[in-house]
Design a protein that fits this description.
Layout (H helix, E strand, L loop, with lengths): L2 E2 L1 H9 L5 E4 L3 H6 L5 E2 L5 H4 L9 E4 L4 H14 L4 E4 L2 H8 L8
Parallel strand pairs: 1-5, 2-3, 2-4, 4-5
Organism: Rufibacter radiotolerans
Pfam families: Rhodanese (PF00581)
Protein name: Rhodanese domain protein
């Protein structure tokens, strides 16, 4: 599975590389801590897929990386996306490794 570490993601964000961030957590989780991008809960992903950009590198985000891995597989296998990365360890790893102001839950 193609992955990106929190530190690699931070470097790419700092360089202002074009990235599509898709967070597949629930709104309550998003409210605790988020990296921006677009909130599309995993259950809503099938109906939101047509509006996603297949060309822009896309980073999928969840709490620990499991739901985002499911989203990645869905987008790859069902919709032919090829430019996807799973945030390794999810927002939890981001909070521990990159941004200590991000709440851990």
């Amino acid at each position: 599975m193609p992955e990106i570490t929190p530190l690699q993601l931070k470097e790419r964000l700092d360089r202002q590389e074009p990235l599509q961030l898709i967070d597949v957590r629930e709104p309550e989780e998003w409210a605790i801590c988020n990296l921006g991008g677009e909130l599309i809960p995993l259950d809503d992903l099938p109906k939101a897929t047509p509006r996603l950009d297949k060309e822009t590198p896309t980073v999928l985000i969840c709490h620990h990386g499991f739901r985002s891995a499911q989203a990645l597989m869905f987008l790859q296998q069902r919709h032919g996306f090829t430019n996807l990365l799973n945030l390794k360890g999810g927002i939890h790893a981001w909070a521990l490794e990159v941004d200590p102001t991000c709440a851990v839950y």
